[in-house]
Design brief:
This protein is mainly beta. The protein has two helices and 13 strands; from the N terminus they run ββββββαβββββββα.
Length: 139
């Protein structure tokens, strides 16, 4: 049912941002693939491979890394306070990205809208640890 996921789907989502916690990263020295919690994701040389709070790993392109993170110069980065829209998945599906497919399931994953047509998938428990959830939006 991934065809149900589009910018309009977020109309009853909520505004959020990543909490300013330090996240470890390494720079990819060669092209490769990392197994994320939502499925395999490809990356190329120069991508930052970020390690999340539960040891999960995911790649971020150099352009997005600079836009979304402040590099602390010590192998860690802090997310910038950038407001996004999020919503708990109300159906199962797949976010199709140029670097791989991210599977999500109803009630278990948040879909984050970074911008028009640009979505990410975050497991519910990790979302609670890493994103600000406004009062009344906890599920």
């Amino acid at each position: 049912m991934e065809d149900e996921l589009n910018d309009t789907w977020f109309k009853d989502g909520f505004e959020t941002y990543k909490k300013p916690a330090k996240e470890k990263y390494e720079v990819a020295q060669q092209d490769g693939q990392v197994q994320t919690l939502e499925g395999p994701v490809n990356y190329t040389v120069g991508h930052k491979i970020i390690t999340g709070p539960k040891g999960e790993r995911y790649p971020v392109s150099p352009i997005k890394f600079e836009a979304y993170y402040d590099d602390n110069g010590d192998g860690t980065a802090t997310p910038k306070k950038i407001f996004k829209i999020a919503k708990l998945a109300d159906h199962d599906g797949v976010v199709r990205a140029s670097w791989g497919n991210l599977e999500y399931t109803r009630g278990n994953d948040y879909i984050v809208r970074h911008g028009p047509g640009d979505y990410g998938v975050v497991k519910k428990d990790i979302f609670a640890q890493t994103y600000h959830i406004p009062k009344g939006k906890e599920k």
